[in-house]
Write a structure and sequence with these properties.
Layout: E1 3-5, H1 32-44, E2 46-52, E3 58-61, E4 64-67, H2 75-85, H3 90-95, E5 100-107, E6 113-125, E7 128-138, H4 152-155, E8 163-168, H5 175-187, E9 195-200, E10 217-222, H6 230-236, E11 244-247, H7 253-264, E12 268-273, H8 278-288, H9 294-304, E13 305-315, E14 321-329, H10 332-339, H11 346-357, H12 361-370, H13 376-385
Parallel strand pairs: 1-4, 8-12, 8-13, 9-10, 9-11, 11-12
Antiparallel strand pairs: 2-3, 2-7, 3-4, 5-6, 6-7, 13-14
Length: about 375
């Protein structure tokens, strides 16, 4: 549950209303107010900044929402911000119903840039149409697997030679951080050679300056609909002879179809699904298979699956957040069992397998509680969530 804390004068963004800090002075060139807000929010450890027509700006710090400004943001300011972070036609695209994703950088000092993932959505307000901007910080590098306290079973997926790995969780649960933490670990392993390609919207962790010791490579492509889409990118992997593919979001039938076929052709394909548990991820994957090809694709999915991970972030004792993970290895016996089972029964089969041979959220919670990383209240709240 999110809690919103009212703003006080001492806690607000200090440059609000100052003449030298207009939201945007010149689109695509200079936005002193926006950049100042983002630097200030970064200094507080904000994981999210919300700017919405007719409302004060809010930020989210360690799961707690607080007001950052006293005054509401008007439509002219929103139009300037959209034009600055996206393009001059951004407002026109929002006006006809497009939802836009992009990334934005602001200099913290001469050597360090802050990067943010931005979602721009059209909304309805009392005076007609409005805009909701959500900005989430992107670290220069994901935390290491040790820092993320990633279990060995998950790390072992880097040794897989073929098949599909599914990452699941809510928005902001750290799926991408985990996925690219694993990717960096694989790329920097001197005993491994891989040729990795990613399709991302937008690119979060730009790894172009990574220098793997074994000659492994990563090529990152930013998805830009309607010209370049996830299905188009996924299909292109078959012509590039990549050993590893990463699709940062599998959101439609076309992408799922292409992803399953890539995984069946001998490479590793990792992608993410928005679902709240491993069993629900399987249900979601089945639902994404186009009806006209569902029978064949579901059978192929059963043969392609190798590992599923679902992650949540919970309050950490002493401040911050820590991950709890549910996961399951799809070994040969489990894959064969799925091929002999009606797809409608797969979620139950998978839920039972998680309890018997994987790690459930309940087990993950108990491990963190035993390690004194979460409180009894947090453990109880999470256990009730899955009751």
């Amino acid at each position: 549950m999110n809690i919103t804390i009212p703003v006080t004068t001492d806690e607000r963004w200090p440059d609000e209303g100052r003449k030298a800090f207009a939201w945007v002075e010149e689109r695509r060139r200079n936005a002193p107010g926006l950049d100042s807000l983002l630097r200030w929010a970064h200094g507080l450890g904000a994981s999210r900044i919300d700017i919405k027509t007719g409302h004060p700006v809010t930020i989210k710090v360690h799961g707690v929402i607080r007001y950052a400004t006293c005054k509401a943001t008007d439509s002219l300011a929103l139009a300037d911000i959209v034009g600055h972070v996206y393009a001059s036609d951004g407002m026109a695209m929002l006006g006809v119903g497009h939802i836009l994703d992009t990334a934005y950088s602001v200099a913290l000092d001469r050597k360090v840039n802050l990067r943010f993932r931005i979602n721009l959505s059209p909304i309805s307000v009392k005076r007609g149409s409005g805009v909701h901007i959500v900005m989430r910080p992107i670290p220069a590098r994901p935390a290491s697997l040790d820092q993320q306290m990633v279990e060995q079973e998950i790390r072992d997926t880097n040794r897989l030679k073929s098949g599909m790995i599914l990452f699941g969780g809510a928005t902001g649960s750290g799926k991408t951080t985990l996925q690219f933490g694993l990717a960096i670990e694989k790329l920097m392993d001197p005993t491994v050679y891989c040729d990795m390609a990613t399709g991302e919207e937008p690119i979060e962790f730009l790894l172009d300056d990574l220098r793997p010791p074994s000659g492994s490579r990563i090529s990152q492509t930013e998805i830009r609909p309607p010209t370049l889409t996830f299905p188009t990118f996924t299909r292109s992997l078959t012509r590039r002879e990549m050993s590893d593919g990463i699709i940062t979001e599998c959101r439609d039938g076309e992408t799922m179809n292409a992803a399953i076929n890539i995984a069946m052709m001998g490479g590793i394909l990792g992608t993410t699904l928005h679902a709240d548990s491993v069993s629900l991820m399987i249900q979601r994957a089945i639902a994404l298979c186009p009806p006209s090809e569902r029978d064949n694709l579901v059978s192929a999915l059963a043969q392609a699956l190798r590992f599923c991970i679902n992650q949540r972030l919970v309050p950490r004792k002493g401040g911050g957040r820590v991950a709890i993970r549910e996961f399951l290895t799809f070994d040969r016996d489990l894959r064969r069992k799925l091929t002999r089972t009606e797809p409608t029964d797969w979620p139950d089969v998978v839920a039972n397998a998680v309890e018997a041979q994987g790690q459930s959220f309940g087990r993950a919670i108990r491990k963190l509680l035993d390690a004194d990383l979460i409180t009894e209240d947090t453990a109880l709240a999470e256990e009730r969530r899955d009751a």
